Protein backbone atom coordinates (compact mmCIF):
# COMPACT_ATOMS: atom_id res chain seq x y z
CA UNK A 1 0.00 0.00 0.00
CA UNK A 2 1.24 3.47 -0.84
CA UNK A 3 2.11 6.08 1.76
CA UNK A 4 0.81 9.56 2.34
CA UNK A 5 3.20 12.49 2.32
CA UNK A 6 2.52 12.87 6.03
CA UNK A 7 3.59 9.29 6.80
CA UNK A 8 6.71 9.71 4.68
CA UNK A 9 7.76 12.80 6.63
CA UNK A 10 7.12 11.07 9.95
CA UNK A 11 9.03 7.98 8.86
CA UNK A 12 12.03 9.94 7.63
CA UNK A 13 12.19 11.75 11.00
CA UNK A 14 11.62 8.78 13.28
CA UNK A 15 14.65 8.26 15.50
CA UNK A 16 13.07 5.26 17.20
CA UNK A 17 9.64 3.85 17.78
CA UNK A 18 8.42 4.28 21.36
CA UNK A 19 5.32 2.08 21.18
CA UNK A 20 2.46 1.28 18.80
CA UNK A 21 1.33 4.90 18.64
CA UNK A 22 4.37 7.00 19.48
CA UNK A 23 7.71 7.74 17.89
CA UNK A 24 10.66 9.91 18.86
CA UNK A 25 10.44 12.48 16.09
CA UNK A 26 13.45 14.51 15.01
CA UNK A 27 12.92 18.24 14.50
CA UNK A 28 14.79 20.05 11.73
CA UNK A 29 13.86 23.42 13.19
CA UNK A 30 12.46 24.60 16.50
CA UNK A 31 11.04 28.11 16.75
CA UNK A 32 10.42 29.83 20.07
CA UNK A 33 8.57 32.90 21.22
CA UNK A 34 8.89 34.80 24.49
CA UNK A 35 5.58 33.49 25.71
CA UNK A 36 5.88 29.70 25.74
CA UNK A 37 9.63 29.26 26.28
CA UNK A 38 10.52 30.64 29.76
CA UNK A 39 9.57 27.57 31.82
CA UNK A 40 11.35 25.37 29.29
CA UNK A 41 14.60 27.26 29.74
CA UNK A 42 14.09 27.24 33.50
CA UNK A 43 13.64 23.44 33.33
CA UNK A 44 16.91 23.07 31.42
CA UNK A 45 18.76 25.23 33.94
CA UNK A 46 17.39 23.19 36.83
CA UNK A 47 18.63 19.97 35.26
CA UNK A 48 21.84 21.63 34.17
CA UNK A 49 21.29 20.55 30.58
CA UNK A 50 22.69 22.28 27.48
CA UNK A 51 20.66 22.98 24.32
CA UNK A 52 21.42 20.02 22.07
CA UNK A 53 21.47 21.88 18.70
CA UNK A 54 21.53 25.68 19.16
CA UNK A 55 21.80 26.21 15.41
CA UNK A 56 18.46 24.46 14.89
CA UNK A 57 16.59 26.87 17.15
CA UNK A 58 15.32 30.32 16.41
CA UNK A 59 13.71 32.86 18.73
CA UNK A 60 11.30 35.69 18.01
CA UNK A 61 9.65 38.24 20.29
CA UNK A 62 6.17 38.68 18.87
CA UNK A 63 3.24 38.20 21.24
CA UNK A 64 3.91 40.91 23.80
CA UNK A 65 5.64 43.47 21.60
CA UNK A 66 4.09 46.93 21.16
CA UNK A 67 3.29 47.98 17.61
CA UNK A 68 3.20 51.78 17.98
CA UNK A 69 4.43 53.38 14.80
CA UNK A 70 7.75 54.58 16.20
CA UNK A 71 10.96 53.70 14.36
CA UNK A 72 12.31 50.23 15.13
CA UNK A 73 15.33 51.46 17.08
CA UNK A 74 13.04 53.38 19.44
CA UNK A 75 10.88 50.40 20.13
CA UNK A 76 10.65 49.50 23.82
CA UNK A 77 8.24 47.39 25.80
CA UNK A 78 6.73 49.50 28.58
CA UNK A 79 4.48 46.95 30.28
CA UNK A 80 6.66 45.52 33.07
CA UNK A 81 5.62 41.88 32.80
CA UNK A 82 6.08 41.88 29.03
CA UNK A 83 9.43 43.67 29.25
CA UNK A 84 10.62 41.05 31.74
CA UNK A 85 9.45 38.25 29.50
CA UNK A 86 11.32 39.68 26.51
CA UNK A 87 14.47 40.39 28.54
CA UNK A 88 14.42 36.90 30.01
CA UNK A 89 14.01 35.43 26.53
CA UNK A 90 16.93 37.50 25.20
CA UNK A 91 19.13 36.30 28.06
CA UNK A 92 18.19 32.67 27.46
CA UNK A 93 18.84 32.85 23.73
CA UNK A 94 22.20 34.58 24.25
CA UNK A 95 23.24 32.08 26.91
CA UNK A 96 22.56 29.14 24.60
CA UNK A 97 23.77 30.73 21.34
CA UNK A 98 20.31 30.79 19.75
CA UNK A 99 19.58 33.27 16.98
CA UNK A 100 16.98 35.77 18.21
CA UNK A 101 14.89 38.29 16.31
CA UNK A 102 14.64 40.78 19.14
CA UNK A 103 12.48 43.84 19.72
CA UNK A 104 14.76 46.12 17.72
CA UNK A 105 15.62 43.66 14.94
CA UNK A 106 14.80 44.91 11.44
CA UNK A 107 13.51 41.45 10.50
CA UNK A 108 11.45 40.96 13.66
CA UNK A 109 7.83 40.01 13.15
CA UNK A 110 5.34 37.25 13.85
CA UNK A 111 7.15 33.92 14.01
CA UNK A 112 5.00 32.27 11.31
CA UNK A 113 5.50 35.18 8.95
CA UNK A 114 9.25 35.54 9.49
CA UNK A 115 10.35 31.89 9.29
CA UNK A 116 9.01 31.24 5.75
CA UNK A 117 9.99 34.64 4.41
CA UNK A 118 13.66 34.18 5.30
CA UNK A 119 13.76 30.78 3.62
CA UNK A 120 13.93 28.61 6.73
CA UNK A 121 10.93 26.43 5.89
CA UNK A 122 11.40 23.78 3.23
CA UNK A 123 9.43 20.76 2.02
CA UNK A 124 9.82 17.58 4.02
CA UNK A 125 10.97 19.32 7.19
CA UNK A 126 9.58 18.83 10.67
CA UNK A 127 9.18 22.24 12.32
CA UNK A 128 8.10 22.60 15.93
CA UNK A 129 7.11 25.64 17.93
CA UNK A 130 5.28 26.29 21.17
CA UNK A 131 2.47 27.83 19.19
CA UNK A 132 -0.57 26.25 17.61
CA UNK A 133 -0.35 28.10 14.29
CA UNK A 134 2.87 26.30 13.39
CA UNK A 135 0.60 24.36 10.99
CA UNK A 136 1.20 27.33 8.63
CA UNK A 137 4.35 25.65 7.29
CA UNK A 138 2.36 22.88 5.63
CA UNK A 139 1.83 25.43 2.87
CA UNK A 140 5.46 24.77 1.90
CA UNK A 141 5.26 21.00 2.32
CA UNK A 142 6.74 21.02 5.85
CA UNK A 143 5.11 19.27 8.77
CA UNK A 144 4.69 21.98 11.39
CA UNK A 145 2.70 21.81 14.58
CA UNK A 146 2.48 23.39 18.01
CA UNK A 147 3.92 21.82 21.15
CA UNK A 148 3.47 22.48 24.88
CA UNK A 149 6.02 24.08 27.18
CA UNK A 150 7.30 20.79 28.65
CA UNK A 151 7.78 19.56 25.10
CA UNK A 152 9.72 22.74 24.28
CA UNK A 153 12.14 21.76 27.04
CA UNK A 154 12.42 18.23 25.64
CA UNK A 155 13.13 19.55 22.14
CA UNK A 156 15.76 21.97 23.43
CA UNK A 157 17.50 19.15 25.27
CA UNK A 158 17.25 16.42 22.62
CA UNK A 159 16.07 17.95 19.31
CA UNK A 160 13.37 15.30 19.38
CA UNK A 161 9.79 15.01 20.53
CA UNK A 162 7.79 12.04 21.76
CA UNK A 163 5.08 12.20 19.13
CA UNK A 164 1.76 10.42 18.75
CA UNK A 165 1.26 9.71 15.07
CA UNK A 166 -1.92 11.28 13.67
CA UNK A 167 -4.45 9.92 11.19
CA UNK A 168 -4.59 10.99 7.55
CA UNK A 169 -7.30 13.27 6.21
CA UNK A 170 -7.55 14.48 2.63
CA UNK A 171 -9.40 17.69 1.80
CA UNK A 172 -9.84 17.85 -1.94
CA UNK A 173 -10.89 21.23 -3.35
CA UNK A 174 -11.65 21.43 -7.07
CA UNK A 175 -12.94 24.37 -9.09
CA UNK A 176 -11.79 27.97 -8.79
CA UNK A 177 -12.25 30.66 -6.18
CA UNK A 178 -14.41 33.43 -7.60
CA UNK A 179 -13.44 37.09 -7.69
CA UNK A 180 -13.66 38.65 -4.24
CA UNK A 181 -12.99 35.38 -2.44
CA UNK A 182 -9.67 34.18 -1.08
CA UNK A 183 -8.12 31.26 0.75
CA UNK A 184 -9.34 32.90 4.00
CA UNK A 185 -12.93 32.53 2.77
CA UNK A 186 -12.15 29.00 1.68
CA UNK A 187 -10.80 27.96 5.07
CA UNK A 188 -13.68 29.61 6.97
CA UNK A 189 -16.05 27.80 4.62
CA UNK A 190 -14.31 24.45 5.20
CA UNK A 191 -14.26 24.90 8.98
CA UNK A 192 -17.96 25.85 8.96
CA UNK A 193 -18.64 22.58 7.11
CA UNK A 194 -16.48 20.16 9.08
CA UNK A 195 -16.63 21.94 12.47
CA UNK A 196 -14.07 23.24 14.96
CA UNK A 197 -13.27 19.64 15.94
CA UNK A 198 -13.73 18.22 12.44
CA UNK A 199 -10.08 17.44 11.85
CA UNK A 200 -9.20 16.56 15.43
CA UNK A 201 -6.54 13.87 15.56
CA UNK A 202 -5.77 14.24 11.85
CA UNK A 203 -3.12 15.76 9.67
CA UNK A 204 -4.88 17.24 6.67
CA UNK A 205 -3.43 17.08 3.19
CA UNK A 206 -5.01 19.63 0.85
CA UNK A 207 -5.25 18.61 -2.79
CA UNK A 208 -7.08 19.58 -5.95
CA UNK A 209 -7.05 22.25 -8.65
CA UNK A 210 -8.25 25.05 -6.35
CA UNK A 211 -5.31 24.43 -4.02
CA UNK A 212 -2.83 24.22 -6.89
CA UNK A 213 -4.01 27.65 -8.08
CA UNK A 214 -3.28 29.34 -4.74
CA UNK A 215 -0.11 31.38 -4.20
CA UNK A 216 2.32 30.21 -1.51
CA UNK A 217 1.09 32.97 0.82
CA UNK A 218 -2.58 32.10 0.26
CA UNK A 219 -1.69 28.50 1.11
CA UNK A 220 -0.16 29.73 4.38
CA UNK A 221 -3.48 31.34 5.32
CA UNK A 222 -5.23 28.04 4.63
CA UNK A 223 -2.78 25.85 6.56
CA UNK A 224 -2.53 28.40 9.40
CA UNK A 225 -6.24 28.15 10.09
CA UNK A 226 -6.49 24.40 9.64
CA UNK A 227 -5.67 24.13 13.34
CA UNK A 228 -9.00 25.88 13.97
CA UNK A 229 -10.64 22.68 12.74
CA UNK A 230 -8.63 20.84 15.39
CA UNK A 231 -6.04 19.47 12.96
CA UNK A 232 -2.61 18.37 14.18
CA UNK A 233 -1.02 19.53 10.96
CA UNK A 234 -1.74 20.57 7.40
CA UNK A 235 0.20 19.74 4.26
CA UNK A 236 0.27 20.75 0.63
CA UNK A 237 2.64 18.75 -1.53
CA UNK A 238 5.34 20.97 -3.04
CA UNK A 239 4.87 22.14 -6.64
CA UNK A 240 6.39 24.89 -8.80
CA UNK A 241 4.69 27.57 -6.71
CA UNK A 242 6.34 26.20 -3.56
CA UNK A 243 9.72 25.76 -5.19
CA UNK A 244 9.75 29.29 -6.64
CA UNK A 245 8.76 30.80 -3.30
CA UNK A 246 11.47 28.97 -1.39
CA UNK A 247 14.27 29.25 -3.96
CA UNK A 248 13.90 33.03 -3.94
CA UNK A 249 14.32 33.15 -0.17
CA UNK A 250 16.91 30.56 0.84
CA UNK A 251 19.94 32.23 2.36
CA UNK A 252 22.06 29.38 3.65
CA UNK A 253 22.56 27.07 0.64
CA UNK A 254 24.75 27.57 -2.46
CA UNK A 255 22.99 27.34 -5.86
CA UNK A 256 24.15 23.79 -6.64
CA UNK A 257 22.81 22.52 -3.30
CA UNK A 258 19.50 24.30 -3.98
CA UNK A 259 19.28 22.53 -7.36
CA UNK A 260 19.77 19.14 -5.63
CA UNK A 261 17.22 20.02 -3.00
CA UNK A 262 14.66 21.04 -5.65
CA UNK A 263 15.00 17.61 -7.27
CA UNK A 264 14.18 16.01 -3.92
CA UNK A 265 11.28 18.35 -3.21
CA UNK A 266 9.66 17.50 -6.54
CA UNK A 267 9.40 13.88 -5.45
CA UNK A 268 7.71 14.70 -2.15
CA UNK A 269 4.09 13.71 -2.46
CA UNK A 270 1.62 11.07 -1.39
CA UNK A 271 1.78 7.88 -3.46
CA UNK A 272 -0.99 7.46 -6.03
CA UNK A 273 -2.38 4.49 -4.09
CA UNK A 274 -2.02 6.07 -0.64
CA UNK A 275 -5.14 5.65 1.48
CA UNK A 276 -6.52 8.45 3.67
CA UNK A 277 -8.62 7.61 6.73
CA UNK A 278 -11.10 10.33 5.80
CA UNK A 279 -11.63 12.36 2.62
CA UNK A 280 -13.72 15.53 2.23
CA UNK A 281 -14.49 17.10 -1.13
CA UNK A 282 -15.41 20.74 -1.72
CA UNK A 283 -16.07 22.95 -4.71
CA UNK A 284 -14.26 26.31 -4.62
CA UNK A 285 -16.88 27.85 -6.94
CA UNK A 286 -19.36 27.68 -4.09
CA UNK A 287 -17.28 29.77 -1.72
CA UNK A 288 -18.55 33.31 -1.09
CA UNK A 289 -16.87 35.85 1.21
CA UNK A 290 -17.22 34.31 4.67
CA UNK A 291 -17.63 36.02 8.04
CA UNK A 292 -17.93 34.56 11.53
CA UNK A 293 -20.95 35.46 13.62
CA UNK A 294 -20.09 33.63 16.86
CA UNK A 295 -17.25 32.85 19.23
CA UNK A 296 -15.80 29.81 17.49
CA UNK A 297 -14.23 29.85 14.01
CA UNK A 298 -16.80 27.36 12.71
CA UNK A 299 -19.64 29.76 13.47
CA UNK A 300 -19.31 31.38 10.08
CA UNK A 301 -21.62 32.16 7.17
CA UNK A 302 -21.43 33.54 3.65
CA UNK A 303 -21.99 37.30 3.68
CA UNK A 304 -25.12 36.67 1.62
CA UNK A 305 -26.60 34.37 4.30
CA UNK A 306 -28.21 34.96 7.67
CA UNK A 307 -27.14 33.64 11.07
CA UNK A 308 -28.65 30.14 11.24
CA UNK A 309 -31.76 29.33 13.28
CA UNK A 310 -31.03 27.87 16.71
CA UNK A 311 -30.29 24.19 16.87
CA UNK A 312 -32.92 21.84 18.28
CA UNK A 313 -30.18 19.94 20.13
CA UNK A 314 -30.18 21.41 23.71
CA UNK A 315 -26.43 21.59 24.35
CA UNK A 316 -25.71 23.07 20.95
CA UNK A 317 -28.59 25.50 21.36
CA UNK A 318 -27.17 26.67 24.68
CA UNK A 319 -23.76 27.27 23.10
CA UNK A 320 -25.30 29.17 20.22
CA UNK A 321 -27.35 31.36 22.56
CA UNK A 322 -24.26 32.08 24.65
CA UNK A 323 -22.28 33.02 21.53
CA UNK A 324 -25.10 35.22 20.18
CA UNK A 325 -25.48 36.94 23.53
CA UNK A 326 -21.75 37.65 23.73
CA UNK A 327 -21.75 38.95 20.16
CA UNK A 328 -24.92 41.03 20.65
CA UNK A 329 -26.63 39.29 17.74
CA UNK A 330 -29.76 37.22 17.05
CA UNK A 331 -30.40 34.05 15.08
CA UNK A 332 -31.72 34.89 11.62
CA UNK A 333 -29.93 38.25 11.53
CA UNK A 334 -27.84 39.26 8.51
CA UNK A 335 -24.19 40.27 9.00
CA UNK A 336 -24.27 42.45 5.90
CA UNK A 337 -24.77 46.00 7.19
CA UNK A 338 -23.63 45.33 10.77
CA UNK A 339 -21.84 48.42 12.15
CA UNK A 340 -18.23 47.92 13.32
CA UNK A 341 -16.13 50.13 15.62
CA UNK A 342 -12.79 48.74 14.70
CA UNK A 343 -10.97 47.08 11.81
CA UNK A 344 -7.85 45.05 12.42
CA UNK A 345 -5.73 43.85 9.53
CA UNK A 346 -2.87 41.72 10.78
CA UNK A 347 -1.80 38.38 12.33
CA UNK A 348 0.06 35.31 11.08
CA UNK A 349 -3.06 34.44 9.07
CA UNK A 350 -3.29 37.56 6.95
CA UNK A 351 -0.49 40.10 7.31
CA UNK A 352 1.77 39.12 4.44
CA UNK A 353 2.50 41.35 1.49
CA UNK A 354 -0.20 39.86 -0.73
CA UNK A 355 -2.77 40.52 2.00
CA UNK A 356 -1.70 44.13 2.22
CA UNK A 357 -1.79 44.47 -1.58
CA UNK A 358 -5.37 43.20 -1.53
CA UNK A 359 -6.25 45.81 1.08
CA UNK A 360 -4.54 48.60 -0.86
CA UNK A 361 -6.45 47.62 -4.02
CA UNK A 362 -9.72 48.23 -2.21
CA UNK A 363 -8.86 51.39 -0.27
CA UNK A 364 -6.76 53.26 -2.86
CA UNK A 365 -8.04 56.85 -3.08
CA UNK A 366 -10.82 56.28 -0.56
CA UNK A 367 -11.30 56.93 3.17
CA UNK A 368 -11.91 54.95 6.32
CA UNK A 369 -15.38 55.73 7.74
CA UNK A 370 -15.04 58.44 10.42
CA UNK A 371 -16.68 56.22 13.05
CA UNK A 372 -14.07 53.47 12.62
CA UNK A 373 -10.60 53.02 14.06
CA UNK A 374 -8.68 50.94 11.55
CA UNK A 375 -5.18 49.59 11.87
CA UNK A 376 -2.85 47.58 9.69
CA UNK A 377 -0.11 45.66 11.47
CA UNK A 378 2.30 44.09 8.96
CA UNK A 379 3.41 40.55 9.74
CA UNK A 380 7.10 41.40 9.80
CA UNK A 381 9.67 44.12 9.36
CA UNK A 382 10.31 42.83 5.84
CA UNK A 383 6.63 43.01 4.94
CA UNK A 384 6.52 46.53 6.32
CA UNK A 385 9.56 47.61 4.28
CA UNK A 386 8.18 46.07 1.11
CA UNK A 387 4.79 47.73 1.63
CA UNK A 388 6.61 51.04 2.07
CA UNK A 389 8.56 50.46 -1.16
CA UNK A 390 5.44 49.51 -3.11
CA UNK A 391 3.55 52.60 -1.98
CA UNK A 392 1.02 50.46 -0.08
CA UNK A 393 1.83 52.13 3.24
CA UNK A 394 1.09 55.57 1.80
CA UNK A 395 -2.22 54.37 0.33
CA UNK A 396 -3.23 53.03 3.74
CA UNK A 397 -2.13 56.13 5.63
CA UNK A 398 -3.88 58.43 3.12
CA UNK A 399 -7.07 56.41 3.59
CA UNK A 400 -6.89 56.90 7.36
CA UNK A 401 -5.46 53.56 8.55
CA UNK A 402 -2.90 53.41 11.35
CA UNK A 403 0.25 51.87 9.88
CA UNK A 404 1.99 50.04 12.72
CA UNK A 405 5.12 48.09 13.52
CA UNK A 406 4.96 44.27 13.24
CA UNK A 407 3.77 41.93 15.99
CA UNK A 408 0.84 39.77 17.05
CA UNK A 409 -0.91 42.95 18.15
CA UNK A 410 -4.68 42.82 18.38
CA UNK A 411 -4.83 39.18 17.28
CA UNK A 412 -4.85 38.46 20.98
CA UNK A 413 -5.01 40.81 23.92
CA UNK A 414 -1.54 40.11 25.22
CA UNK A 415 0.06 43.47 24.47
CA UNK A 416 -0.96 47.16 24.36
CA UNK A 417 -3.32 46.67 21.41
CA UNK A 418 -6.74 45.64 22.61
CA UNK A 419 -10.40 46.49 22.25
CA UNK A 420 -12.78 47.83 24.87
CA UNK A 421 -15.73 45.76 26.13
CA UNK A 422 -18.57 45.67 23.61
CA UNK A 423 -16.50 46.98 20.69
CA UNK A 424 -17.13 45.19 17.43
CA UNK A 425 -14.17 44.43 15.19
CA UNK A 426 -13.80 43.25 11.60
CA UNK A 427 -10.61 41.25 11.87
CA UNK A 428 -8.34 39.27 9.55
CA UNK A 429 -7.21 37.05 12.43
CA UNK A 430 -7.92 33.39 13.14
CA UNK A 431 -9.72 33.18 16.48
CA UNK A 432 -12.97 34.82 17.57
CA UNK A 433 -13.02 33.37 21.08
CA UNK A 434 -14.60 35.35 23.91
CA UNK A 435 -12.16 38.00 25.08
CA UNK A 436 -9.63 37.20 22.39
CA UNK A 437 -9.18 40.85 21.33
CA UNK A 438 -9.97 42.28 24.77
CA UNK A 439 -12.47 41.56 27.51
CA UNK A 440 -16.01 41.70 26.12
CA UNK A 441 -14.77 42.55 22.62
CA UNK A 442 -16.63 41.13 19.61
CA UNK A 443 -14.59 39.69 16.78
CA UNK A 444 -15.77 38.91 13.25
CA UNK A 445 -13.19 36.94 11.26
CA UNK A 446 -12.96 37.67 7.54
CA UNK A 447 -10.53 38.16 4.66
CA UNK A 448 -8.30 41.24 4.27
CA UNK A 449 -10.41 42.47 1.34
CA UNK A 450 -13.61 42.14 3.41
CA UNK A 451 -11.97 43.90 6.37
CA UNK A 452 -10.83 46.71 4.06
CA UNK A 453 -14.37 47.09 2.72
CA UNK A 454 -15.71 47.17 6.30
CA UNK A 455 -13.26 49.94 7.18
CA UNK A 456 -14.49 52.09 4.31
CA UNK A 457 -18.18 51.42 4.85
CA UNK A 458 -18.11 51.44 8.67
CA UNK A 459 -20.10 48.24 8.52
CA UNK A 460 -19.66 44.68 7.32
CA UNK A 461 -20.40 44.58 3.57
CA UNK A 462 -19.99 42.21 0.64
CA UNK A 463 -16.63 43.21 -0.83
CA UNK A 464 -17.74 42.00 -4.25
CA UNK A 465 -19.97 45.07 -4.51
CA UNK A 466 -16.91 47.21 -3.91
CA UNK A 467 -15.27 46.07 -7.10
CA UNK A 468 -17.33 48.60 -9.02
CA UNK A 469 -15.14 51.21 -7.39
CA UNK A 470 -11.78 49.52 -7.89
C1 LIG B 1 0.29 32.28 22.88
C2 LIG B 1 0.27 31.03 22.07
C3 LIG B 1 0.53 29.87 22.96
C4 LIG B 1 -1.00 30.90 21.25
C5 LIG B 1 -1.02 29.68 20.34
O1 LIG B 1 -0.55 28.61 20.66
O2 LIG B 1 -1.55 29.75 19.26
C6 LIG B 1 -1.24 32.14 20.44
O3 LIG B 1 -0.27 32.36 19.50
C7 LIG B 1 -2.59 32.09 19.82
O4 LIG B 1 -2.72 32.40 18.64
O5 LIG B 1 -3.55 31.77 20.52
S1 LIG C 1 -0.53 36.47 15.24
FE1 LIG C 1 -2.12 35.66 16.55
S2 LIG C 1 -2.38 33.56 15.91
FE2 LIG C 1 -0.45 34.23 15.13
S3 LIG C 1 1.05 33.61 16.64
FE3 LIG C 1 0.44 35.73 17.11
S4 LIG C 1 -1.21 35.52 18.56
FE4 LIG C 1 -0.97 33.50 17.64
UniProtKB/TrEMBL annotation:
SUPFAM superfamilies: Aconitase iron-sulfur domain. Its EC number is 4.2.1.33. Residues 8-458 form the Aconitase/3-isopropylmalate dehydratase large subunit alpha/beta/alpha domain. It is an enzyme of class 4 (lyase). One of its GO terms (molecular function) is 3-isopropylmalate dehydratase activity. Coiled coil: none annotated. Its cofactor is [4Fe-4S] cluster. Heterodimer of LeuC and LeuD. Belongs to the aconitase/IPM isomerase family. Catalyzes the isomerization between 2-isopropylmalate and 3-isopropylmalate, via the formation of 2-isopropylmaleate. This is 3-isopropylmalate dehydratase. It comes from Trinickia dinghuensis. The lineage of its organism: Bacteria, Pseudomonadati, Pseudomonadota, Betaproteobacteria, Burkholderiales.
Amino acid sequence: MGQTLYRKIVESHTVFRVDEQHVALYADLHIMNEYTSPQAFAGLAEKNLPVRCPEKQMGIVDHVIPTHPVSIDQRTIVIDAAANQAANFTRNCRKHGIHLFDVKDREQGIEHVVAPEIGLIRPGMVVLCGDSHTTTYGALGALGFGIGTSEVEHVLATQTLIYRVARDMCIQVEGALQIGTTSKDLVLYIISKIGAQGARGFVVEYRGSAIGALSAEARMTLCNMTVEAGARGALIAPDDTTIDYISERIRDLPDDRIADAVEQWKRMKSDADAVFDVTHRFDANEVAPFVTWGTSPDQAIAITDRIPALSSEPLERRNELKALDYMGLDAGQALDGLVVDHVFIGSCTNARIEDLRAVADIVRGRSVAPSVRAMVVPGSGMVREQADREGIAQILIDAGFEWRQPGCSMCLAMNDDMLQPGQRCASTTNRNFEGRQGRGARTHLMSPAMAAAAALAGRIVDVRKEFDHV
